[in-house]
Amino acid sequence: MLLTCLLLAGCAGDTPRTVESSERPESSSQAAAPTPAADSKIPSSSLAEEASVEPESSQAESEAPAEKAVGEFDLESGTVLLNNGIEMPILGIGCFRLSSEEAENSVYWALKDGYRLIDTARIYGNEDGVGRGIQRAIDEGFVTREEIFVTTKMWTSDYDDGPAAIDASLQRLGLDYIDLMILHHSQPENDVAAYQAMEQAVTDGKLRSIGLSNYYEPEDFDRLISATTMKPALIQNETHPYHQSTVMKEHIAQYGTVMESWFPLGGRGNTQTLFNDEAISAIAAAHGKTSAQVILRWHLQAGNIAIPGSSNEAHIQENFEI
User: Fold this and answer.
1) What predicted TM-score, i.e. pTM, was given to this entire model?
2) How many separate domains does the chain show?
3) What pLDDT score was predicted for residue 63?
4) What are phi and psi of 234, to 5 degrees?
5) Of residues 108, 115, 124, 195, which has the active-site annotation?
6) Under a CB-based contact definition with an 8 Å cutoff, are residues 169 and 131 in contact?
7) Is residue 29 part of a domain?
8) Which of 14, 158, 185, 315 lies 20 to 30 A from 140 at CA?
């Protein structure tokens, strides 16, 4: 069993294989989202003990399980309950930096392996490929549309006409509805209007959930939600063991908003450092796992949805075996 909520210290270890992480492009017309400060070393005292075995429950308790709380990560079912009452998978496939053809294959392989969460975006230029991968999996009969949770994002240049952007993503994906649409970046001059367009699309049945990405300051988050009605179900930010987004996670928890990591394996130069981390390497060796698998497991136990990206079929399968 992997450690619960690992908090990790950086040093040398194994030489693991490379796993592509899900990343985000920056708009050439706007300032990049602030690069979070990396923690170069986490105190070893913050490593958690291994999970203890729960005592056997009474028959009455087993017959009447407690209701799942909003924001609670269920590692057994692999889902989290969002603040709108919808359950979302907590481990998925990211499609950043994949061509349309690569995205089609990666999505198809992922769904075949048991993934049910897919993450893409208009700016990735591969929504059509994602849609084809979904349809292939459905046509072959090992998944239904209702079992798949599809996420895409509205790009900043589309904020002035949110309804058209939503319809265009639906058309490219070949879907009747999108499970989660996210505003890709904070843009105070018009992101409220774009968010309101997504709210209307929820009412119209085109979207099931809505959220935000690259909102790094609590004040920026509050600015938007104070001007809108539906609380974001999710915020997708750079989050990994060397930058754990603690302040933002604590802030959004009061709204039932959960964190999703778009750099789950480090990114921005941290991936190989994380893979070589002495603590991570030791845990991986002890449990017969790779460093990537340990990091992804850490995310789930820390309460972060993770969407590692890859165009390699073997890596996609490995990332799911955590």
Assistant:
1) 0.82
2) 1
3) 56
4) -155, 150
5) 124
6) no
7) no
8) 315
pLDDT of residue 179: 99
Q: Exposed/middle/buried for 211, CB within 10 Å: 0-12, 13-18, 19+?
A: buried
Listed as own residue / partner, the contacts of 126-129 with beta carbons closer than 8 Å and 24 or more positions apart are 126/95, 126/98, 126/99, 126/100, 126/102, 127/152, 127/169, 127/172, 127/173, 128/100, 128/172, 128/173, 128/174, 129/95, 129/98, 129/99, 129/100, 129/101, 129/102, 129/103, 129/104
In a domain, 16, yes or no: no
Of 173, 191, 190, nearest in space to 182 by CA: 191
In this prediction, residue 65 has a pLDDT band, given cuts at 50, 70 and 90, of: low
Give the C-alpha separation, 237 to 175, whole Å: 26
Total residues belonging to the chain: 322
CATH of the domain at 227: 3.20.20.100
Active site residue 124: yes
How many angstroms separate the CA atoms of 288 and 248, rounded? 33
What's the domain range around 294?
71-320
Kindly state whether residue 32 falls inside one of the protein's structural domains.
no
Give the pLDDT confidence of 180-223 residue by residue, as tens digits. 999 999 999 999 999 999 999 999 999 999 999 999 999 999 99
Of 45 and 233, which is predicted with more confidence? 233
